[in-house]
Structures
1.
Amino acid sequence: MKLADLVRTVADGGESLYFCGDHRATLPALRRLILEEAGK
Amino acid sequence: MSSRYPIFDRSRLRMRPLAERHHDMSVADLLALEAAEPSFEHPQLGVVAARLIEARRRGAARIMMLGAHVLKVGVSRQLVDLLQGGWLTHLAFNGAGAIHDYELARIGASTESVPRYIRSGEFGLWQETGGLNEWIREAAELDLGLGENVGRRIAESDFPHRDISVFAAAYRAGVPASVHVGVGYDIIHQHPNCDGAALGKSSYRDFLVFTRAVEHLEGGVLLCFGSAIMGPEVYLKSLSMARNVAHQEGREIRHFLTAVFDLVPIGGDYHHELPKTDPGYYFRPHKTILVRTVADGGESLYFCGDHRATLPALRRLILEEASK
């Protein structure tokens, strides 16, 4: 991914976030949060 | 059997003429052959020049792989000159390389403003650039490679700037210019006239043409300018295929020089891979081109710098060395 694309495609109203980390950690962490939020 | 998933209907797209596009670069930005080139000094750049000269004397492969950004920094004339001088035996581009070369030859300008046109959904949807899709369809019909037909068509065209087309120069010189396409990567894939089967057939032929070139790499040189994905990935697969056959025939493809020219600083000794815990491990030109594929007898060099400086500097050294 070009880091510029984190900017250009959301410049007219979108939002963007960047997460730097090992996919073995980030993806399970996101799944856990989805399930926790959905279970509330 | 029909797919369970719906697809985007391209007939709904509204295309605009290329003449209405704002361009970020033009032929006025191309570096002249006689111009004072941006400064780039490196003690080992002369080694690359000397090896290219030696490889040409031996008849070994002199392969250059390029990212499209290299054309955007304005060194087309230097590339055309290297081709005309017989210094290269193969050029390999990604799909965007063919697009920038085509637009520069046809209208003398290229490179649209992504931030400007992505807002309105006009990015990439320019009528004349889609003409490349017709040439790709023709390439498939004629059993030609994608890059071969683009070069042939530009060379035979009345495009006002065809003299600075790298693809046309390659075609005229009889040097294969292959295009290694990733589907969905390029603006012409957005167009209603894009034929995915023709794209695949013609670019796959280019892959086999490239692999044939790699078969002659023993004693030769492979250069990679600004290609972080296509260059190392295509080269890796091709080298394995070439070595597979060479081993069966009692030949070797291991004594050659690779050189990477890029913008990314590599810390430490680049002849060794970084650990997987280092983000730099995933910079493929490093681990693939500079380490793994030359581990059994080859050599590698890395040059960190702007392509507008490094490529003309290499050309100058080749010409100086050759004239001694």
2.
Amino acid sequence: MNDIVPLMGIETEYGIIRENIEDSDPVEESMALLKACEQKSVFQLWAYFRERTHTDQRGFSVERLAQDEEEDEFCKEDRKRPYSYWDMKCDRVLTNGSRFYNDHTHPEYSTPECANIFDLVAHDRAGEYIVAECARLRNKALGEDSIQLFKNNTDYIGHSYGTHDNYLIPRALSFQQWVDGLVPFLVTRQLYAGSGKVGTECKELAPFEKLQLSQRADFIECLLSIETMTQRPIVNTRDEPHAASDKYRRLHLILGDANMSPYATALKVGTTQLVLTLIGEDKLGAVPELSEPVWDIKEVSRDLTGTIPLKRKNGKFISPLEIQEFYLEKAQAFCSGQREDWDWILKEWERTLNDLKNFPEKLSDRIDWAIKKELFGEFMEAENLGWDDPWMKSLDLEYHNIDPERGLFRGLEEEGRIPQFFPEEKVTQAMDAPPDGSRAMIRGKAVEHCADSIKNIHWTGVEYKDGSYSDLTRVITTEEVYEALKLEKERFA
Amino acid sequence: MSDPLRREEKKDAPSEKRDDGPKKPDVSSPGKDNILKRMRKVDPKQSEKYKQRTGE
């Protein structure tokens, strides 16, 4: 376990559509999908009263979180539906400690908290399998294959939904210290973490029909904000640690893309964990501060070479690749030889930046945007199409379809063009079992052994009908987890 | 040890020759035909029909 970043997690909102209905209703379809789930779970027992989504890391609270006018109208209509809030949410907590529910009309899978990068990647992938299985069951019930789920972040006409990566970090450092160290890294992380998008949804920049690095960059509008549905920031300021708030913060990053490639997911969360470790250990030093990071994030996304000059606060220029190399060098100097998963990240981070610089074609077996570039390039050549053909956006969407029979990424895996990242057993095991050494073990065991006794459940604890409560807010390290498990021995016998 | 690490060890084994340049596309691969077939089945209008609501 890492002292600076002891736990990490990924939340993924999926796109959902029923293809044979002209105006597919995402509320109805998401509810039906969650109800189709056959994974062992507790249903509709999420402890919403323990949430504090309106508290800001900068020391204030907001009365409400904003959404755009269109979504306001949709919500007005939603209130007329014959369902309660609980009905629409359909919350499930599974035996692997994850949460699977409906968030803002999208089925969302939130992985259990993981201490290890590879565990997190396995659980993210397990989430895809669980969601895909629900779609299969729902289609079976309908007697057709109309329900399709997409692990992406856009509908190409301006509606985005998120893939959030989360890191538990010490409260001891000020929030501004984390922000200062992170911003240039986050603006340029898309060089390998971007999942690629055909076209743009950004009205402030010139029209763009080709492939860009990131799905989400077009939707980033400010540096800091508590908002998630409008005014999306580079660093989200929600202060909801899901742990003891005197000791911890949770860094809630909402700028990232949904990666289909497990390798890209590993590199995204692994490099972020290393940078946070450098900040927390005071080993990063002065970073190359950017003059216009919010503007830059969109410009970086439109340049597949990583060489576009970005203006620094000191008036000089630096490329996205050079920024990443700065962070890599710092991480190599401090983090090498400490953990096997870190060494893997360091080695692959270096290999990926070198390949981008010298042989970008080599990225097409592991980095989502580069896979798309090669694959779509072949298709355009075969069909004599350009990037502006509507078919290209449809292919872009289908890359993210999680149906193994249809999805393009799934097809590439099946054909062996994308090397398998994990043996299948590691992922199928993660569908049921929580990650070792994480407090998710306690939540998962509660669901596995005591489902009927649970009154409510949350990231921070489990309340039982007999009045007892397992408080997980200070159960963070592996030692604390095993100590807490000893106390729960009788309950889980 | 985690499996991605094992995969890396295999990749870096001394007996294996390392690449120094861009790979030549494997045009003979049957997989390429299969994935192209899968791509041709995609409705060109699919993205236009795909409407979602804003999420987080």
3.
Amino acid sequence: MLPDLGKYVVPVLSAYGAMIILAGGLVLASLKSAKDSKKTLAKLEQKRKAKSND
Amino acid sequence: MSIWEFANPVRFMRLSGRLLPYFAVLTAITLIPALVWGFFFTPDDYRQGATIKIIYVHVPTAFLAINIYFMMFVTSLIWLIRRHHVSALAAKAAAPVGAIMTLIALITGAVWGQPIWGTWWVWDPRLTSFLIMFIFYVGYIALWAAIDEPEKAADLTSILCMIGSVFAIVSRYAVDFWNQGLHQGTSAPLLRPGAENQMAPVFWQPLMLSLAGFFLLFLTLLLLRTRTEIRNRRITALRAREA
């Protein structure tokens, strides 16, 4: 499955591994904070609307 | 229609909400094939062997590391001159992406340098300016986190960004300014006007696709994170009104 990387297997795999971990972590963290802020804002807006209707 | 209309947070949210899914799909269909092509289907270089495969990660992330800083410089300048909140928040949203891209470029450069140069690190002009740029990214993020008042935070971080841009410029042109150090000249000369491409198409084509993929990833993350920052600003305002 893996291409033949010869004696450079460690540097090549560690470069790709570091990129996948760091870039993947950034994407996941960005998605999570987007989801959290959307949810919190929706709750606050709902609360504000309910208050203004009272 | 003027570009300044998108400085309005409501218009920005509406437009970015429509664009975001398209950017996400474009990123996936560009970046994944580029990395698969580069890793699995490119030959070894006659001198560097299989380490040439690191180019498809190292060059695009280094390219982004510098250009995200320029983008932050421009948006910070817009904030300082025109006081558009979306531009300050876009700079804030871009900083962690730039920091991660710089870190990936530094790590992949070190693991590439070790077998080819015989050392993980050397105090070469390009490497050193890149490390300083990374420190500026971290300082910029820390400064935003340290100041509670949003306008003051935007002012101070913009000034810090202006100062750090010197190192972004040095990183970009270090290999041209100083004829010393281990780092080679640009690997993507077609990105510079008038430059001649010296790379074989078998390496150059996946590299260009990878550059496009990483650039699209940046645009997608920028839209997503700027939207989050705008929402967070609104959350702070609503909570302050409640208190």
4.
Amino acid sequence: MSQVLQRTSATGTRATKVIGALAILVMVWVVVSGLILTPQDVVQGESVRIMYVHVPSAWIAYLAFIFTAVASASWLISKKHSMGFDRFAGASAEVGVMFMAITLITGSLWGRLTWGEFWQWDPRLTTTAFLFVTYVGYLAVRRLEGSAEQRARRSAVVAMLAVLEIPLVHFSVVLWRSLHQGATVLNPNGDVKMDDLMLFTLFSGVVAFTLVFVWLVLHRQRTMLLVDIANRQGLDAAIAARKTEGSVR
Amino acid sequence: MKDAGFILGSYFVTLGAILVFAFVTLRRAKESSQSVDEKDKTWL
């Protein structure tokens, strides 16, 4: 069985295959419903269809960054300093950055249709761009020279600080005057004014992107483990070669 | 559909980014896997 899996994917298992298949199925539904089945919005017209990819990608990016912070804190707090926490934090941040980039691009396209411009230095847009750049910086910190433990410690501290930006981004539409609309689904009074199929498609988008997130993080953190093992084996081999060299002299 | 270019573009960007990320991830996994023993692949 393991050899069969090895041929198809180095980091795949039966679970990742099931998650991947479910992600594809739900994603197909989101595309069909989002582009064809759902009605137009009374105010925004057809452009509301961008919501079904824009909003879930933003939510999953937030979720990914929160997971990164939790895993980083777990690494710092745990006595064993398990590198699994660090790899999970790194994998989650990478996927989060991808979803944040999708959020910015799709938001820009939606903005062009509703505001007439691709970009405005609006509080929500500016803080979101700042969040994106911060996590690109986090990924850069992970690539700095040093041991795996040094990488984990540095990046954990950055992740703990970076996650504090998320409430700022989310509440920016409340704290400042913003062009960006306020929360429709996650509004404080819980009164959701949206067509049932639109709401269902939006939540389907969240489910699809969550499945994609899980699938990507599982593969990515396993790849990180493979790289760490290969690096350790390379270092061990170099040390052994040096010792042999010394004993010959 | 009005503004189809922008709407379809947003779906194309979303699905394209996910597919490229998934492809790169699987390729990296395959490359990294070659130098590691099977016993170290704890998920198998």
